Amino acid sequence: MIKASNISHFYGKEQVLFDLDINIKKGEFVFLSGESGSGKSTLLSILSTLLKPSNGDLRINGKNIKELKSLDSFRQDNIGFVFQFHYLINYLNVYENIELAAKKDKKKNIQALLKELRIEDLSSRYPNEISGGQRQRVALARALINEPSIIFADEPTGSLDSVNTKLVYEILAQSVKKGCTLIIASHDMQVQNYATQTLQMLDGKLQ
Fold first, then answer.
1. Strand pairing of 181-186 and 150-154?
2. What domains does the chain contain, in order, with CATH numbers?
3. How far, rounded to the nearest angstrom, does the alpha carbon of residue 29 sit from its chain's CA centroid?
């Protein structure tokens, strides 16, 4: 599913990742753990194709990322993203935010997904009219709408209360049960309650 070989990365002259080898199988719930500055967010960005590594190779679903003709198309077909800050578009309502990310043949599923996430009554509301927890569930819907084979989440509950944090984890865990592979980078050790594999980062290396 995801195979990273000899991944290293530099910001200028500073090396932040050191020769990492990672194998993640289909259907795993992976917790990428580590303190600020450990390199976990950089590694997540590389694994999710948002950042090109300084050295090393990355294969997703058997495909070498360096050889892809259209990285944007590959992402839309295979990957969902969830971030700490939802990055919703304020002048679009909830439905339109999800619709914008949806492939043509997936748009028919938006209302059912909103119902599953318990936000079906918010479809015509705008991001500034709903709570932080509701906004993050909209961001989750946007990540899930194309039924990606992999979801990457960077501190997805960092700005949420305990109730919404639990709900987000349960929703993500449910997507794994349906066959999705999930990689979460987080400070929150609660993720271990759901994860099938934990990768601990320290000073750019896996412990």
1. parallel
2. 27-50+70-206 (3.40.50.300)
3. 11
Report yes or no: 33 and 207 within 8 Å, Cβ to Cβ: no
For 70-107, how does the pLDDT look when each residue is reduced to its tens digit (9 = 90+)? 888 888 888 888 877 777 899 999 999 999 988 888 88
In a 13 Å sphere around the CA of 79, the CA atoms on its Cβ side amount to 22
d(CA 19, CA 154): 22
Collapsing DSSP states into helix, strand and coil, what is residue 37? coil
Contact present, 105 and 75 (Cβ < 8 Å): no
Q: Are 139 and 82 in contact (CB under 8 A)?
A: yes
Q: Which of the residue ranges 5-9, 139-143, 165-169, 174-178 has the most confident prediction, judged by mean pLDDT? A: 5-9
Beta strands 197-202; 181-186: pairing state:
unpaired
Determine whether 65 is exposed, middle or buried from the number of CB atoms within 10 Å of its CB (0-12, 13-18, 19+): middle
pTM over 0.85: yes
Question: With contact defined as beta carbons under 8 Å apart, do 4 and 57 qualify?
Answer: yes
State the DSSP code for 207.
-
